[in-house]
Amino acid sequence: IAVTGNNPPNPWKPEDAIVATSLLLKDLGAAGGSYTAERKAALKYYAGGNWDKAKNAFYGNQVMAHATEIQKSIDYLQESQ
Q1: Which tens digits make up the pLDDT trace of 23-44?
Q2: Is the pLDDT of residue 81 over 90?
Q3: How far is residue 68's CA from residue 60's CA, in Å, rounded to a whole number?
């Protein structure tokens, strides 16, 4: 509530859903900020206690590939200012 001001929070509102997902990923370890920490958090989000199973690695790899592409766009925009 304090973050978005919506009371009650609505999971169908993008602002509430994004905040909730962000907080969950932080709790899952993404706040560590490293590639490994963020990948592990994504895997825990996807597979829970099975995050370290090889069959689930594709998800963490895909998430981090998207994150890398988004970061490239951010870097490009910052360089062109």
Answers
A1: 999 999 999 999 999 999 999 9
A2: no
A3: 12
- pTM (2 d.p.): 0.84
The residues near 47 (Cβ < 8 Å, ≥ 6 apart) are 53, 56, 59
Interior angle at CA 8, CA 44 and CA 18, nearest 5: 35
User: Which token pair is 26?
Assistant: 């932080």
Cis peptide leading into residue 8 (ω within 30°): yes
Euclidean distance between CA atoms 31 and 45, whole angstroms: 14
pLDDT (tens digit per residue) in 40-66: 999 999 999 999 999 999 999 999 999
Q: Which residues contact 25 (CB under 8 A, 6 or more apart)?
A: 38, 41, 42, 45
> Which residue's entry shows tokens 């200012």?
81
